[in-house]
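[agent] plan:
  1. take the single chain provided in the ticket
  2. run structure prediction with default settings
  3. attach structure tokens to the ticket
  4. add a short note for the reviewer (M.T.)
[agent] executing step 1
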Amino acid sequence: MSVDPLRSNALPHADEANRVPEGAVSPERMRAVLRRLQQDYYSNAEVQDKVTHAVRQDLGLSRTE
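[agent] step 2 finished; step 3 output follows
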């Protein structure tokens, strides 16, 4: 049974972090995001708004959709 990284306070083990697939997000960026998740950085409403805005822009969505 795997651990949901969004619900876990633990960072992945080194061997798991090294298995991050190459793609749009570099392994280093993914590690930084995982650290922020662990530190509850994304629990802040202002940060959530910024992330939501950035994702919506990336997906080509307007604020009203």
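[agent] step 4 note for reviewer: Helices lie at 14-17, 27-38, 45-59.
[agent] ticket updated
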